[in-house]
Design brief:
Chain A: One of its GO terms (molecular function) is sigma factor activity. The complex is a heterodimer. By secondary structure, chain A is mainly α. Chain A is built from nine helices and no strands. Classes of the chains: A mainly alpha, B mainly alpha.
């Protein structure tokens, strides 16, 4: 591998690193797991980088590889990701501007998201990122119609978890 | 406010709160590729062992092995084989340990130490294999001279004819040539395979060192 390749990769990643952090936020629930997943996604991105041809945007490509890595890891070690308490992250991300009820509601929302399966998490993530259905279908490798159906189901599931 | 809207609002607000990793921190993460190089060192050493083992297996039952058996080398050969297998397995263990250590390291300094350690292990492994070839050949010749009846007969004949020294000179010269050829082929093989991997490791090491500075 040439150092030039490394340089361009690291620069791009540094610029777009928030995407990885956000994936980690939805798929992990404590600081260590967050860092582990971040590192894993970075390595997977680096491994796949020589194949990245620039026909998609770097960020779009990051969404795809990042989510795939998270999904694969989540499937491999379901227990590690899902059983730990999620409080840690919730407190770290606490926003001072919210009033108590909103804060409580957010906590419940994130907790509910952590109960979703890997694909549903990916859908929520892409929804929060304001991606349209075309981008969602490309990122997850499903049809647009399917993405729409799955998104609606996920939203319903989330509402059902929150209001049983 | 709808739950999902609130979530989206919070999601956008959090945008600035994520940790910001520096260029160097990300760079160190991708230097993890060292672990895949060390994994290859481990795999190749296993393949190499399988290769030599396969050759020994194929030679079994050939005229060469019949001749070896006639020399009645078992008393010497078996303990030597056991020792060398033990040493080789110990090297496998070291390679594996190096691989495990490197793949679980995220501290650049420790990673550098492990890279150096791996380089040393490979060096010793190559030296051990080259030395084995050397001593193995020397031992074979010693036994041929002392135990091979065909050979002893030839020697006796030569001493009767008075050209014993010439015969010895020819033997020594051909042995040296053969040894040089065998060792160079092996050394070339090591230089190509392990050398290439070690050069990559070294490259990573230098980059890490550069980052540390």
């Amino acid at each position: 591998m040439s150092t030039e390749l490394e340089h361009s990769f690291v620069e791009l990643l540094e610029k777009h690193q928030n995407i990885i952090h956000k994936v980690c936020r939805l798929y992990t629930n404590n600081y260590d797991a967050h860092n582990d997943l971040f590192q894993e996604i970075t390595i997977q991105l680096w491994k796949a980088y020589p194949k990245f041809r620039g026909d998609a945007k770097f960020s779009t490509w990051m969404y795809r590889v990042g989510l795939n890595t998270a999904i694969t890891l989540y499937r491999k070690s379901k227990r590690r990701v899902s059983t730990q308490d999620f409080e840690g992250v919730a407190f770290k991300m606490k926003a001072e501007e919210y009033d108590n009820t909103e804060e409580e509601q957010l906590k419940l929302l994130y907790k509910a998201i952590h109960q979703l399966n890997d694909i549903e998490k990916a859908l929520v993530f892409l929804y929060l990122e304001d991606k349209d259905y075309r981008e969602i279908s490309e990122t997850l490798g499903i049809s647009e119609v399917n993405a729409r159906v799955k998104m609606n189901r996920t939203k319903t599931k989330l509402k059902n978890i929150l209001n049983p | 406010m709808d739950g999902l809207d609130l979530l989206k609002k919070d999601w956008k607000k959090s945008e600035s709160k994520y940790p910001k990793l520096s260029y160097n921190e990300i760079y160190k993460m991708i230097l993890k590729k060292s672990s895949s190089i060390v994994k290859w060192i481990f795999i190749i050493s296993l393949l190499e062992f399988a290769f030599w083992f396969g050759i020994a297996f194929l030679l079994k039952g050939t005229s060469f092995s019949g001749k070896m058996q006639a020399l009645d080398l078992d008393a010497v050969l078996i303990p030597i084989s056991i020792i060398s297998y033990l040493v080789i397995f110990y090297f496998f263990y070291l390679f594996y340990k190096n691989y495990k250590n490197i793949s679980s390291t995220d501290n650049a300094k420790v990673l550098m130490e492990n890279i150096l350690k791996t380089r040393r292990t490979v060096k010793y492994y190559v030296i051990f294999n080259l030395a084995s070839i050397f001593f193995g050949t020397a031992l074979g010749i010693y036994y041929a001279i002392n135990h091979d009846s065909e050979f002893i007969e030839k020697l006796q004949q030569a001493s009767v004819n008075g050209n014993e020294t010439t015969l010895y000179a020819i033997i020594i010269a051909s042995v040296i040539v053969m040894l040089i050829i065998a060792v160079s082929i092996l050394a070339l093989f090591y230089w190509l395979i392990y050398g290439l991997l070690l050069r990559r490791l070294n490259h990573n090491y230098k980059e890490l060192k550069h980052l540390e500075a």
